[in-house]
Design goal:
- With 372 residues, this protein is mainly beta.
- The chain contains three helices and 28 strands.
- It has a four-stranded antiparallel β-sheet with strand order 1-28-27-26. Strands 2-3-4-5 form a four-stranded antiparallel β-sheet, with no helix packed on it.
Amino acid sequence: MLEFRTQGFNGYAVKYSPFFDSRIAVASAANFGLVGNGRLYILGLTPKGIVAEKWFDTQDSLYDLCWSESHENQCVVATGDGSIKLFDIGLDEFPVQSWQEHKREVFAVHWNLVAKDTFCSSSWDGTIKIWSPTRPDSLLTIPTHSCTYSTSFSPHSPSILSSVSSDSHLRIFDLRTPSSASNHLTCSIPIHTSPSLQQQQQRPISSPAIPPSEALTHDWNKYRSPIIAAAGVDRLIRSFDIRSPAQGPVAVLPGHEYAVRKVAWSPHVSDILLSASYDMTCRAWTDGSAMGADGGGRGGFPQQEEGNIRMRMQGRMGDPLAFGGGRELGRMGRHTEFVMGVDWCLFGAEGWCASVGWDERLLVWDVRAITG
């Protein structure tokens, strides 16, 4: 495990470069993001450890970031003053572009992985905006009418994006539809809903009713285009099939003791995802879709000892909230404060990831070490 100290700044988000396996960006904020400056770190993984190649200070806290998919040196950050800034790490001090349209804190930014020429942002002001790095104004504004903590383009389509909000709903937008048709909204799924009656007949214990709660994070599965995982304040991770929005979650993964701040599907294995939580842990899960519930080894993740598998399976089968055959594969508990962000490395051996938290630390570690 490698470590870098973000001295005086609490980590909020971390992203591996899509171009270099040795470059990581961290969005951070002074004073836990309540008041004060922000800092964007550009870090390099070297034989001597993690080194800061460059950093940029901002007047307000940084809550999220994403790398450009078209320019290897550019990075977009979301700030607490409602602005969005584009930095070029080949230049010093100042952003190359800045946009100020959101009325409140910007909590998420995400680059279009297919078209590669646009990115989206979401804010506490209840809107999602689409941007081009070459345009001074936003291309489109989509109202959600609720504090929107997370938004993302589908990795399978250039025109489909999603969001989760404080009203406990997962929304799907298709930009190919007319704007008059509910502002491109094609699907709205209540995240807190229980699995459908037909699904519950396949299990011996029915799920108790769950009240609505704020949804903080979501992520598209990289291999199964209709599958999205979402999580938030109620501590549960759920996956949904957007082809059947009325059926409720296809998997429910309980286990975290406090709110889940970030989920990220593996770029290497279709049924594996990581989560980061206020309970100071990062956890690896299988959603049970790829024979994961039987404990078998799969692409790069070693098979676990039979006794450990049996013990974990017995514990999950007794949890009335669990559904879909998924389970926790392991956890990393080296952070000493809220874990705010986690991301997978796209390159090299399957399983390397990075996490950041309010303990002013970036940790780079191998998921296989906690699942073996």
